[in-house]
Amino acid sequence: MASTTVVRTPHVVVEWREQRLVATDGATGRRHAVTVEALRVLDVAEAPATAADLAARAGVEPAVVVALLAARLLVPHDRVPERHYWSAAELVVQRTTRTARPAADREATRDLMEPPSKDTAGPSLELPVAEPADDPPFSQVLAERRSCRRFGDTPIDAATLGRFLEMACAVRQDARKFGSGVSWRPHPSGGGRHPLETYVYPLNVTGLEPAVYRYDPFLRHLEQVDKADESFFETVRNLHEHTELMEGDPAVLLVVTSVFGRTMWKYDNGGLLIVHQDVGALYQTFYLVATALGLGGCVIGGGSEALIAGALNIDPLREGHVGTFLLGVPADDRYRDPLRDVFAETL
Fold it and tell me: How far apart are CA 203 and CA 251, in angstroms?
């Protein structure tokens, strides 16, 4: 080992955990209690060096370096991949084992459980719901689902928006009267916890004044968000800078947040991964409902969580931005043939 050069594993995250320093190796998901001396070694192990050189440079006993080698927080430099796409923090989250908290622990903290619904403290607005039409077969909806990034000037009426939200988000059954936070909706959720909230900003909806609303999936109505900053949502045109091929403005901007505690109360580890899986399920439901109603939709990434939290007047440690969906009337049918749309010049 004396002649072998080693480096710090590139995927390590160090944190205070349960009143001690803990290093988590993103490559394996293993956690190791570490000392200040061990951190000094890791700090100087950016470039390849022998174990003896690291001990000397960090001013520690060789046993500290040996312990880091055994924990694989120091690895042979020729085993480190030259290129990878992971940040250390992302890989640690990915490697975290998803486990439910023991039932006894959950019962002991039931009074701390985030409620399955929330009150935005603003006035409520009943949305009309369009009468069911002759919806296309589900197999056709699946086959025709596409991302639409070009929106026309045609508005959506409030009743169509009401039907979209009811089909995609409305609670079908819930267990609140049994003291449970579980509910059943069109989209699945880990443990039935449903942490996601949908905020609605209408840009071109007839019969609905521009304001920031939250859709209440239990009562099936909109609630105007108290003290929301509408100026952020009015900058929707800035989305053009973040989304390729986007033209025109959508009729509705849907901002999805997560009340993290609803899921994390049940799951001891990996709650964030489960939340993101829930977002994917909600996105697909949005897409399918939009397709069935003859509308166009598109998921967009990016956005500042802190900025959105300020605009919605929410505490980002309890409820944070996890997704955005654009909804509107397609400008044309080019999106139905994405190969020809995207690669028109080469076909």
Answer: 5
Per-residue model confidence as pLDDT tens digits over 102-119: 888 888 888 888 889 987
| In contact, 96 and 29? CB cutoff 8 Å | yes
- CATH code linked to domain 5-95: 3.90.930.70
Q: How far apart are CA 34 and CA 321, in angstroms?
A: 34
For residue 208, is it left (φ>0), alpha (ψ between -120 and 50) or beta? beta
Which residues does residue 221 pair with via DSSP β-bridges, in sequence order?
216
Q: Same topology for domains 5-95 and 100-342, yes or no?
A: no
Q: Which residues of 234-266 are buried (b: 16+ CB within 10 A; e: fewer)?
A: eebeebeeebeebebbbbbbbbbbbbbbbbbbb
Region of residue 228 (phi > 0: left; psi between -120 and 50: alpha; otherwise: beta): beta
Look-up of token digits 């944070």 = 320
Q: Is there a contact between 66 and 51 (Cβ–Cβ < 8 Å)?
A: yes
pLDDT in tens, 229-256: 876 665 555 665 566 678 888 999 999 9
At the second CATH level, the architecture of 100-342 is 3-Layer(aba) Sandwich (3.40)
Neighbours of 292 (CB within 10 A): 20
Which two structure tokens, joined as six digits, stand for 174?
A: 């819930």
Q: Residue 315: exposed, middle, or buried by beta-carbon count in 10 A (0-12, 13-18, 19+)? A: exposed
HSE value, Cβ hemisphere, 13 Å, CA-based, for 34: 32
**Which residue, among 179, 86, 110, 164, has the nearest Cα to 132 in the 3D structure?**
164
**Domain residue ranges in the chain:** 5-95, 100-342
C-alpha 177/C-alpha 194 separation (Å) is 17
